[in-house]
Amino acid sequence: MKIAIASDHAGYEEKERLKPLLNELGIQYEDLGTVSEESVDYPDYARRVGEEVAQGSVDQGVLVCGSGTGMAIAANKVPGVRAAVAWNEETARLAREHNDANVLALGARTTPVDELPKIVRAWFGAKFAGGRHTQRVDKIREIEQNELAHHAPH
To answer: Considering 9, 98, 133, 154, which one is annotated as catalytic?
Structure first.
């Protein structure tokens, strides 16, 4: 598995702390920034990761900002991305199993530091369950396709 990972300034330290865990889990990663705690705009980094996931260059993405919410909102604007904010192991697992989420958004300022590795392990340990969830994820894709068609230049 190969992923793209990125953060803004608020998530930089936690992003760096997650890298050894990703190595331990055997997950290859491409770090798309940021490179310090100097202030940056999170949508730029969320978009980079979202585009890599949507294009199939990587299997999944991980984003870290203050709350996870801004990154998730921005990443979800990229067609094909299903980003979920996870604040504990259960929300991470359910996002993968039920929603086939492909981008994990984490809140460095809102999640206890010792929970983040547990959340990442739960995320990568879970798989999409399919079954009744398939038609629901298909409906999400349908909304996306309808919006794209509606906003396409005529």
So the answer is: 98
Residue 46 · residue 76 · CB < 8 Å: no
Rg (CA), the chain: 15
Cα–Cα dist 86/102, whole Å: 12
Residues 117/24, Cβ–Cβ less than 8 Å: no
65, 133, 150, 151: which is the annotated catalytic residue? 65
Q: Is residue 65 among the annotated active site residues?
A: yes
Q: What per-residue confidence (pLDDT) applies to 137?
A: 96
Residue 151 appears among annotated catalytic residues: no
Low-confidence ranges of the chain (pLDDT < 50): none
pTM for this one?
A: 0.96
User: Tell me: the pLDDT tens digits for 62-85?
Assistant: 999 999 999 999 999 999 999 999
Residue 58, classified by CB atoms within 10 Å of its CB into exposed (0-12), middle (13-18) or buried (19+), is: buried
**Measured CA distances, 126 to 34, 88, 95, 109, 140 (Å):** 27, 13, 9, 25, 20
Q: Which helix (H) or strand (E) holds 84?
A: strand 83-85
Number of helices (H), then strands (E), belonging to the chain: the values are: 6, 5
